[in-house]
Amino acid sequence: MANPPLNSCCFCTSTRNGSIISGLLAIVLSIITIVVIFTTRVAFKTIFFDLDTDIVKIILVINLCMTILISTLMIVGVMKRNHYLMMPWVVLGIMIAIGLLVSVIYTAVVFFIDGYVLSGVLWLVFGLISCAILTYCWCVVYSEYTILAQENERGRYNKQPYRR
């Protein structure tokens, strides 16, 4: 198995702690987003299909509930040192990062086409920053996943865990 891409999270804590923080952050942001979806009058749309706003809201809430579940599984996996429980988050995280990047670029282009240049620039800047943070969190979790998978391969107590 490959070496983990990161040795620490934010140069100050372990990938274990960073993974737990990433999972908690995903849960908190999902809950906040669910509250925003139900308390604002924003018209949510999809890129490819023309669906009713209420249907899009329901789909988003279901996806956010799944994110909460998968993030909880990932946190339990980190705490119990079980990389199999982390796998859904690793897969979901990279898919969300790609989806967020596509969504940010698409929405910014729509703002530019409609003449809202400042909104397009702000959306692009903050969206790309969000993509970078999400990708970094994914790298932290993937690093811990790799460490735990290597531990599992060789036996937890046989050798020291891989650290660069």
UniProtKB/TrEMBL annotation:
It comes from the Eukaryota. The gene is 101897661. InterPro entries: DUF4728, MARVEL_domain_protein_3. The lineage of its organism: Eukaryota, Metazoa, Ecdysozoa, Arthropoda, Hexapoda. Keywords: Membrane, Transmembrane, Transmembrane helix. This is Uncharacterized protein LOC101897661. The chain crosses the membrane at residues 20-43, 55-77, 89-113, 119-141. Pfam families: DUF4728 (PF15860).
